[in-house]
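Narrative of accomplishments. A recurring question from our advisory board has been how the design workflow behaves on a single, concrete structure rather than in aggregate. To address it, we present the structure tokens for one chain from the evaluation set, followed by the sequence designed for it. No filtering or post-editing was applied between the two.
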């Protein structure tokens, strides 16, 4: 028994050290963003007659009325019409396809070079649609926009100019904005998290000269880079990260334009957000398994770059490690097993870094909202992301086990069909786990409630929000709030 307890303690210490290193990585990025000077991309300027041909790809799936708004923004792009190709890649299964057909037909009558591609079989999902579209075009530059984004008119002038002026760049990623930031506390939390990703993490990697992950939309690719990297591949749920890393391994660099903002819509329901985060977490873990051996064998990257890339795409597995540490730590919390001083020290350091790192990271992305609103957004972000622990850990575990699931789009609004799903799929698991953890702590070690407050609050909060949202959607429309 003593040997088993010692082994558990060693594994627990190892897990806590891994979590501490992930927090240190976040602190490093925050400090880089704060103290290393900004970098600016050179941007070429050219007259209309000098503009190269550009393909704009719009991958869609059951997007409804968002199609018309997106096409309106694309038609407003400042680019010569005879140098612009537009592909509506619509694999919709609902009435959205009819909307795309009408919109494309109307634009064709106006002389716009636009085509609609609809696949009956969604092979490789979004990656497959993008690859199918590329087969029908020879344009040297490819812009990609998801349905919920509205590109500004100067998007192509600036991004194409950046790739022309920097021939070693595979792609340029721009920053996401938020059309519905102030709709609810949930959307404000998402906006804060995404602002931290683009304004701190992406910006820091750009300043360090590290490879940047393509975010799947609001970017411009060089066609030659896509081809040399092997093209789009649908064997992970994050085809964007997969292709961008393979382009890096092929010797290409990537660029970031943080001052070019493309506004988009945030998920408005807790379940939609959870589904989105699950897909991203699982996709990152899949890319880690697929590509990390190639990263460490690469001759194009320095050792420190390989280490930073490893943390970048491996951080999603921290949720799996976090759940493992929680389970292994329960006997120690209950007093059934007494840990040594080494475990206590590692637990303290990991907990301290686990609070300081995300707070500094999220605070760095502030927009001058004021102390009160900043405090609410950061605290809410910490709590609600803690509530995703079980869902994201499942995503990471499925990736490790090789379990494949289909690409599930993020609903852009509250999906009525969600209301008819079994309640246990709509938050009951998180709610039950949070209440069980609270009960365990109160019975076995009441002081542990303070230590676990954020996790318990997150699980109960995310679970309750999903259950309430699902029950509300299950009611007749005339009875909803």
């Amino acid at each position: 028994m003593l040997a088993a307890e010692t082994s558990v303690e060693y594994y627990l210490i190892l897990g806590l050290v891994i979590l501490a290193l992930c927090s240190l990585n976040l602190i490093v990025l925050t400090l880089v963003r704060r103290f290393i000077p900004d970098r600016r991309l050179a941007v070429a300027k050219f007259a209309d007659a000098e503009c190269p041909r550009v393909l704009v790809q719009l991958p869609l799936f059951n997007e409804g009325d968002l199609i018309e708004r997106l096409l309106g923004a694309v038609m407003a792009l400042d680019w010569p019409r005879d140098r612009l190709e537009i592909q509506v890649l619509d694999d919709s299964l609902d009435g959205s396809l009819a909307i795309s057909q009408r919109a494309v037909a109307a634009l064709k009558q106006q002389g716009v070079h636009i085509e609609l591609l609809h696949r009956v079989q969604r092979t490789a999902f979004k990656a497959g649609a993008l690859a199918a579209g590329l087969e029908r075009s020879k344009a040297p530059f490819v812009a990609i926009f998801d349905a919920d984004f509205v590109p500004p008119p100067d998007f192509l002038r600036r991004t194409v100019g950046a790739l022309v002026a920097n021939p070693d760049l595979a792609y340029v990623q721009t920053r996401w904005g938020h059309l519905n930031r102030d709709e609810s506390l949930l959307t404000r939390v998402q906006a804060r998290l995404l602002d931290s990703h683009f304004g701190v993490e992406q910006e820091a990697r750009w300043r360090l000269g590290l490879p940047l992950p393509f975010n799947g939309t609001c970017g411009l690719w060089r066609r030659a880079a896509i081809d040399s990297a092997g093209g789009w591949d649908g064997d992970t749920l994050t085809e964007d990260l997969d292709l961008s890393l393979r382009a890096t391994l092929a010797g290409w660099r990537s660029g970031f334009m943080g001052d070019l903002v493309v506004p988009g819509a945030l998920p408005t329901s807790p379940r939609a957000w959870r589904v989105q985060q699950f897909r991203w977490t699982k996709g990152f873990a899949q890319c880690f398994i697929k590509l990390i051996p190639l990263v460490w064998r690469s001759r194009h990257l320095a050792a420190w770059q390989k280490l930073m890339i490893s943390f970048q795409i491996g951080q999603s597995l921290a949720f799996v490690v976090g759940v493992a540490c929680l389970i292994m730590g329960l006997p120690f919390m209950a007093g059934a097993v007494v840990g040594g001083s080494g475990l206590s020290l590692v637990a303290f350091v990991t907990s301290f870094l686990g609070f300081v790192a995300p707070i500094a990271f999220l605070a760095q992305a502030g927009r001058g909202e004021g102390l009160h609103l900043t405090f609410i957004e950061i605290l809410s972000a910490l709590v609600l992301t803690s509530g995703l622990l079980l869902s994201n850990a499942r995503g990471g575990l499925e990736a490790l086990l090789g379990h494949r699931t289909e690409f599930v789009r993020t609903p852009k609004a509250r999906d009525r069909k969600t209301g008819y799903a079994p309640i246990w799929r709509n938050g009951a698991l998180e709610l039950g786990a949070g209440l069980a953890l609270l009960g365990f702590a109160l019975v076995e070690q009441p002081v542990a409630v303070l230590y676990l407050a954020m996790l318990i609050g997150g699980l109960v909060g995310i679970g309750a929000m999903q259950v309430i949202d699902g029950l509300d959607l299950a009611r007749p429309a005339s009875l909803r709030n």
